[in-house]
Amino acid sequence: MIYKDEIETLPREALEALQFKRLQQTLERVYALVPFYKEAFRKANITPSDIKSLKDLHKLPFTTKEDLRDSYPYGMFSMPIDQVVRIHASSGTTGKPTVVGYSRIDIEEWSQLMARSFVACGITSKDIIQNAYGYGLFTGGLGAHYGAEKLGAAVIPISGGNTKKQIMIMVDFKSTVLTATPSYAQLLADTIEEMGLLDKINLRVGVFGAEPWSENMRQKLEEKLRINAMDIYGLSEIMGPGVAIECEAKEGLHIWEDAFIPEIIDPDTQEPLEDGQEGELVITTIKKQAMPLIRYRTKDITKIIKEPCKCGRTHRRIQKILGRSDDMIIIRGVNVFPSQIESVLMEIEGLAPHYQLIVDRQNNLDTLEVQVEVDSKIFSDEIRKLQGLQNQIQKDIKDILGITTKVTLVEPRTLQRSEGKAKRVIDKRKI
Amino acid sequence: MKSIKQISVFVENKPGRLLDVIEVLGGSDIDIKAISLADSSDFGIVRLICENPESAYKVINSSGFTASLTEVLAIAISDKPGSLAKVLRVLKESSINIEYMYGFSAKMKDHAVIIMKVSNLEETIKCCISNNVQILSENDIKSVV
């Protein structure tokens, strides 16, 4: 099924012409309205008129998460705040979030792309969508919500958590679609099984994203819940969920090329790579008003599949995300950088920055353990004081990053040291 | 100074770690007079009274453990019912808080020794002296324990 047949199956040539036209408009816009880009273009010795075709895209400077952080909160906006109708944010590396703004047209566009994405997953206006993505600053909840309404489906805005209630509603309301992070979907599936309610649910499609997940996990979710489990890709900086979506062929995710231009680069040399080669995904938004981004480095590792898809859509696909080019970890949908944990630890007097993060998945929920080495500066002969330190670290991380961690005190020099870059993260999750 | 030095050692709560500490001391011929182990769910603190605390501390520290020297009080009490209560009552009346304590038997006839870490060391010593509570010095420890 295709939602907007004409645009989704537009011949490549016409699609690329449309992309180029929108790229030019976007470049003019940011050059005139966003001081950051004016300066970045000047440094790169380029103006919008130097971009004469899509092939010139690589001449433009990159935008990074650090750039967004440096312009906190509104520095990247290309319109005055009175024309902005929505603000979302995602976690940043210093505790300050990365802020994104949307105009009324941006919200409409996002809703359209989400509706398109739902239809690509086989969802129709007759479906009852149980939206278990978190509602709030995180783009997942509201992004899926607006898309579901745009499509005309019935949306249940239950948000994340409250598992027993989720299941009661899923059974009683006869939900046919579940939107959630894959780890939460797995927790739901296991709990439904424990409660003996697998025969009582009416789910037929699951739309899972915001976290990396494997084919193996897909198979388990599909078998247990008897659904089609679909992968959705997005990031708040670019828009939110609905940047790319799997179609029923489940052979990669179509990236909506009428709104975004994807590129793959070598994360080390920053040189563009050919379609089919694995590297870091870079996205340029070409339809956004409030906060267009030029060549945004997503840090996600994938490749572009240019071969035509059997579904008939002409928009190229990206492979299921394979990993990240930085050390960011995603815990229950929250982005966490080791440097964020480090800065929390550094704030605590006397604490040596010898720490390690152990990521695991227990009972299908991501867990984060922070191991901190105890040296003579923080050591006390009283258990109470050391436990107080554990609690303080835990509380500070919770306050700043919003995630619950287990803090473990370990003996000095027990954590792995490596030459050069320290190995800060041990990910034991089997996804 | 009437207080004595205790060596406190941080150990992870896993098999063999206490043995490692003890073996390091044994390997340097250091006699352990008293030992206590305080534990939480994932770590513990070994508290040791040794004949020569400074050299014991050096040995432990150079073996890669996190350790500290802590001033504690060693108090001799007569080995009969009610004598510990008497000491505790004296401390209570001066509002002195005991952070932790442990006891062991001594070579002194009819006496036991308790080691305690208190909230106010100076005050506790004064209070003990004026109430005839017997405090043991490091030399006393060498001979009686």
UniProtKB/TrEMBL annotation, chain A:
Entry keyword Ligase: yes
UniProt keyword Acyltransferase present: no
Reaction(s) the record says it catalyses: 2-phenylacetate + ATP + CoA = phenylacetyl-CoA + AMP + diphosphate
Domain AMP-dependent ligase C-terminal: 333-429
Pfam families: AMP-binding, AMP-binding_C_2
UniProt keywords, alphabetically: Ligase, Nucleotide-binding
InterPro entries reported in the protein's UniProt record: Adenylate-forming_Reductase, AMP-bd_C_sf, AMP-dep_Lig_C, AMP-dep_synth/lig_dom, ANL_N_sf, PA_CoA_ligase
Enzyme class: ligase
GO BP annotations listed: phenylacetate catabolic process
Family statement: Belongs to the phenylacetyl-CoA ligase family.
Biological role stated in the UniProt entry: Catalyzes the activation of phenylacetic acid (PA) to phenylacetyl-CoA (PA-CoA).
Designated name of the protein: Phenylacetate-coenzyme A ligase
From TrEMBL, chain B:
Protein's UniProt name: ACT domain-containing protein
Record domain ACT: where: 72-145
InterPro entries: ACT-like_dom_sf (IPR045865), ACT_dom (IPR002912), ACT_dom_pair (IPR045739)
Native source species: Desulfurella acetivorans
Pfam families recorded: ACT_8
Domain of life of the organism encoding this protein: Bacteria
CDD domains: ACT_Bt0572_2
